[in-house]
Amino acid sequence: MLIFIAVIIAFVVIKFFYDMSQQSIQVGKQGGMANKYKVLIGYLLEGHQNSRIIGQTGDSLTVGCASTGGQTIFNLVQTFGSLTVEWKMESPLFGKHRLEWQFPEYEDQEKMMRKLTNDLEKYQQNVISASPFRDSFLN
Length: 139
Hints:
The protein has 5 helices and 5 strands; from the N terminus they run αααβββββαα. It is α+β, with helices and mostly antiparallel strands. It has a single domain, classed as 3-Layer(aba) Sandwich (Protein Transport Mog1p, Chain A). Strands 1-2-3-4-5 form a 5-stranded antiparallel β-sheet. β2 and β3 form a beta hairpin. The radius of gyration is 19 Å and the shape is globular.
């Protein structure tokens, strides 16, 4: 019985890694993450003059920027049929923050960016209004 369970677990693990490998190959055939999501990445790079691509694998890409006010990072990860976008921000003034979105793999990238922008604006308004320094930002 134990051998049967071990074989099933091994099969599931091997299948998972095989599927991940196939996914990376498919993204590569589409020109890689930078090409597949170039519209979205273009918008992220335009967000700040110091923004740049700071990492890339077969199924992920990281855009980020850093300045004296902190750092902002967007991780884009291609997962089975979807794109996960993670936003992380670290600031000496506001601390650490993180948001995450899931989009269908072939969602319109302009629509993705509108969703990111809208959610981030709302989130940052909430952060500022909860800040003890709020009055200095609103004036």
